From TrEMBL:
Molecular functions per Gene Ontology: transmembrane transporter activity
Residues of the signal peptide: none
UniProt cross-references to Gene3D superfamilies, sorted A to Z: MFS general substrate transporter like domains (1.20.1250.20)
Name of the protein in question: Nitrate excretion transporter 1
Main location (coarse class): membrane
Length: 560
């Protein structure tokens, strides 16, 4: 009895000590299992539901194939748009921890409702054909209420799954004090992210196709619940960054104050209001128009030094923060096209797989929704290979590891090469005809090439934005890649719609179309976009060279 009491007292003392740890003693790698666990389980759940969404809409809701692909693109676009909203709210009001916890729970509610659409007959059309290319249902199409429930489930999944995705990455990076540890974290973050997508796109999709939709989606809901629990268990270890207000308000003040002080002469100005004693007395000479926002004139400040008119005076730091965003925008603008091509390739690949021989060894059949495994697996395998072999070899021959801009550029090249490869495969499939089905394995090489490109340009962009964005916008910086992907998926929907209206390349039966010409179009546009990126990269100057150098050292450290 005494031993038990001593054990309980010791456990209480440990918990009390952990609860009283100051923020500077929290964080570190002890938090990684909980953050990565949340990411892993959320990725499995969302991957299992999203990867097979096109097939589910065709088989269970009687949608036509192109319409189902369009819905899937919209869902994927929303999943990648909501992280921006989550990051803004986290940066401005509640912090990363609260956003990840709440978003994970919302995703769980959506997953439960989505499971009910297949488990309860009243929530879906009756007796739809099980053939993936057949869209007829004996009782007609889905009712308005059934569509409302379906879209409500998808909306909750989008808000929850998307809202937690890159806010989780910011929370993880905040646990470390050095750029070296942050780079290592981002590397493993993407490894876990893609591994979870692979599991969801293979194991869960196989269960949905061969055991039952209800059982497969039920597993997704259970795994999502585990993500919430694991994340909350690690709460005592997290270093939570204090939110000091919306940084976007400060940026808006710079614009307003610059306009208001249009006629103020910058020459001879001696006083600039700065919130930090960091030696930054005057703003830089680039985009000099905004410098007026930081000029103090009579009436801008109170006798005690506080700001009297917030919308007439901004800090030097806020002025420089806005300039940093303006300078990086051209680079950012070249990135959405990468996601447009990837989004179209993934949706068209599923439709191609439905028309190809998916059997391996005569018995096993690859589910159409699992074909994207080629891209996901290549990313997951390439990331460690790059950090432990390719980048160190590059450093030995070139004297330093490739910087983020070089990695992104290489990703651009592989992206349009992957589109050209998909065009060649589709042309060969059309020539073989329906009498001699082409093996679905021919779809994998282009997906692998595109996946290797993702392993280069996606982490490269996250690292670049995290280094170059203002410190107050760290959450938003990691979510910028998500905004790029969101724009890409939305634009891919628009591009597919435009192609359908103006050409005969994308009929409902793709055997009668020319998907290969769509791929060739994407390859040509990708080459033009790469040239634009090269111009932007050559003109760009790193805002913080020290961070860039530390990032290179981190890549070197990963190889040892």
């Amino acid at each position: 009895m005494d031993a038990k009491m001593r054990h309980e007292e010791a456990r209480f003392d440990v918990e009390l000590a952990l609860s009283k740890l100051p923020d500077r003693k929290r964080g570190g790698w002890v938090t990684f299992p909980f953050i990565a666990g949340n990411l892993l389980f959320m990725g499995i759940a969302m991957g299992g539901a999203n990867a097979n969404l096109i097939v589910y809409l065709i088989q269970k809701f009687g949608m036509e194939s192109i319409d189902a692909a369009q819905v899937s693109n919209i869902v994927n676009g929303c999943v990648n748009l909501t992280p921006i909203a989550g990051a803004i709210i986290a940066d401005s009001y509640f912090g990363c921890f609260s956003i990840v916890a709440v978003a994970s729970f919302i995703a769980f509610l959506g997953m439960v409702l989505f499971t009910l659409t297949t488990s309860l007959p009243s929530l879906r059309p009756h007796q739809c054909s099980k053939a993936a290319t057949t869209v007829s249902c004996s009782g007609g199409g889905p009712s308005t209420s059934q569509i409302a429930v379906l879209y409500s489930a998808l909306a909750l999944m989008v808000i929850g799954g998307g809202g937690s995705r890159f806010t989780n990455a910011t929370l993880g990076a905040d646990q470390f004090n050095t750029a070296r540890d942050q780079d290592v974290f981002f590397n493993w973050y993407f490894v876990v992210f893609y591994v979870s997508s692979i599991i969801g796109s293979t194991v869960i999709v196989y269960i949905e196709d061969n055991v039952g939709w209800g059982f497969g989606l039920g597993i997704c809901a259970a795994v999502n619940a585990a993500a919430v629990v694991v994340f909350l268990i690690g709460r005592r270890f997290y270093r939570v960054t204090e939110v000091t207000g919306s940084p976007f308000t400060g940026l808006a003040r710079v614009v307003v104050a610059s306009v208001v002080k249009w006629g103020v002469d910058e020459e001879g100005a001696e006083y600039y209001y700065s919130s930090k004693l960091d030696g930054q007395g005057t703003p830089s000479q680039s985009f000099r128009f905004f410098n007026r926002a930081a000029i103090q004139v009579k009436g801008d400040t109170n006798p005690d030094g506080t700001v009297a008119k917030p919308w007439r005076l901004a800090t030097v730091e806020q002025v420089e923060d806005l300039k940093a965003l303006i300078k990086i925008f051209p680079l950012w603008s070249s990135s959405p096209l990468l996601s447009i091509t990837i989004g179209i390739q993934l949706s068209m690949t599923i439709l191609q797989a439905l028309k190809m021989d998916r059997h391996i060894g005569g018995t096993f059949s690859i589910p159409p929704g699992s074909v994207s495994i080629g891209s996901l697996a290549s990313v997951a395998l390439t990331l460690p290979l790059l950090d432990r072999a390719v980048y160190p070899a590059f450093q030995r021959y070139m004297g330093r590891a490739p910087n983020p801009l070089q990695r992104i550029g290489a990703g651009h090249i592989l992206n349009f090469i992957g589109m050209a490869g998909s065009a060649l495969v589709e042309r060969a499939r059309l020539r073989s005809g329906p009498a001699h089905l082409t093996s679905v394995l021919w779809l994998l090489p282009p997906l692998v090439v595109t996946g290797v490109g993702e392993a280069l340009h996606f982490p490269g962009q996250v690292g670049l934005y995290y280094q170059e964005f203002p410190e107050a916008l760290r959450g938003t910086s990691t979510a910028m890649i998500s905004l790029i992907v969101a724009i890409g998926f939305y634009m891919s929907t628009a591009v597919v719609g435009l192609v359908r209206r103006t050409t005969g390349w994308l009929p409902d039966n793709i055997d009668a179309g020319r998907v290969d010409k769509v791929y060739w179009m994407l390859a040509v546009v990708g080459m033009i976009n790469f040239c634009y990126y090269v111009v932007c990269a050559r003109l760009y100057k790193y805002q913080n060279k020290n961070k860039e150098e530390v990032g290179s050292e981190a890549s070197d450290a990963l190889s040892t």
